[in-house]
Structure formats: C-alpha cells, structure tokens
Amino acid sequence: MRPRTPPDSPLLFDTAPLVPDFRLELKARKAGHWPVAGADEAGRGPLAGPVVAAAVILDPKRIPEGLNDSKQLSAQRREELFVQILATATVSIASSSSTRIDETDIRKASLDAMRRAICSLAVPASYVLTDGLDVPPGLDCPGQAVVKGDARSVSIAAASIVAKVTRDRMMARAHNVFPDYGFAAHVGYGTAQHRAGIEKHGPCSLHRMSFRPLRKGEDGPETDELIPE
Question: What pairs with residue 70 in β-bridges?
Fold first, then answer.
C-alpha cells in the first residue's frame, strides 16, 4: 500500500474561530444541575471606572441569535442583543468601584462583583459557568471556569454582552461629570487622549490609583490590554 502523504495545508477545524453554543449548559443539565447561569465581567484593564460583572440564565427556547464574545461584536450589535437578553433571560448585574479595586486588587474585585451578580439572580442558579480561570468563592452552587468561555458558551457570551454594554453606558454618563478625560470615547482605557487628560488635569475619583502609570514609582498592574471597541 502506498504511504499517505500529509496534507500541505492546515486543517480547517484547527483554524476555525470558536462559536459559542449551549453544549456546556446541556451537559450540566444532564448531570442534574438546572438552571445554569453564565457569568462574565468587563473592565479589568482600564485606568478608570468600575469593573462590571453580569450573570445570565438563558431560556433554552428563547436564546437570542448571534450571541458571541462581546469583543467580536460591533457596539450597535451589542446594544441590540443587550435588549433581547434582558427581554428573554434572567439577568443580574454587579460592579466593583475603582476604590474597591485599589483596596484589594483587580482580580479580587472582579471575582467579588461576579459573585454578587450570581447570588443576586432572581432565579437561583444550580450551576455556574464563568469565563476565565476562576470560579468566584462564596457561591451557593458549584461552578466551572471555562477558558475563552465567552466564545464557547452562549450563556457566558450573553453575560459578556450585558457587562460590556452596562459598563460602557456607565462610562458615557461619567463623561458628563468628568468631561476632561474623554470617558465616552475610550471608556477608561489608557488611550493617548486619556493619558493626556490625566497629565493635564490629574486623576479624578474614578481613576484606579493602584494601576500604572497612576501609581508612579511603584509596581502596579499593567494596563496594556487591547482597547476594545
């Protein structure tokens, strides 16, 4: 038999982008856990503003079409899906302020906001899927951390959209109070416009003083995270 030569092009399935679905939720349901909530946060990287977390329990019969990692969606599409999610799902939102972030650290503040969002759901979750590496401590139910969860689970994707839209709206309102920094444009990320505003006017009460470059001369979290739309 002639030996088979390997293909000279990568397998399509190895390079195809992840598309979130409902399989992780159904797996948990098969194991006896229902309802299942997805949880995610927005705003770990900015120099200013809160970190916002959301928890979402989707109705399997009314899942909005097009749910995906919020970073893969346009601002307009996020807003459209935000409305649909709130109309069809059980949703809870919580945040940790810049003061809370400075008093603890961004990881702890993010997990605490996620915990409060999950625990505040009007319908208690029996199981939780969270984006990233951690399940928040202090939950009343078991959970699973899912790497790239917002691209694998529609429940986590829905939570990422709710958290992102909520935080963007909060920062747009913050712009009305602190117009010198351009919060409506960059929602607190370390853009050139934002850094110029800090240089000229100094930080305001929304800034995370434990983050570099605000924490000058000391070690602090890096903020070189890509600036989302």
Answer: none
Q: Give the per-residue pLDDT at 215.
A: 85
- What are the extents of the domains in the chain? 20-199
41 annotated to bind ligand: yes
Q: What is the pLDDT of residue 213?
A: 86
CA distance 184 to 191: 12
Q: Is 131 annotated as a binding residue?
A: yes
Q: Could you count the other beta carbons within 10 Å of the beta carbon of residue 151?
A: 19
Q: Kindly report the pTM of this predicted structure.
A: 0.88
Q: Pick one of 3.40.920.10, 3.40.640.10, 3.30.420.10, 3.40.50.2300 as the CATH number of 20-199.
A: 3.30.420.10
CA distances 5 to 2, 9, 15, 90, Å, are 9, 12, 21, 53
Strand partners, 207: 48
User: What is the arithmetic mean of pLDDT over 188-215?
Assistant: 96
Establish whether 105 is an annotated binding residue: no
Edge-first strand order for the sheet with 51-57 is 90-96, 51-57, 36-42, 127-131, 143-146
Contacts of 18 (CB under 8 A, 6+ apart): 148, 151, 152
Which of 3-17, 39-53, 169-183, 194-208 is predicted least confidently? 3-17
* Cα–Cα distance measured from residue 55 to residue 159, given in angstroms and rounded to the nearest whole number: 5
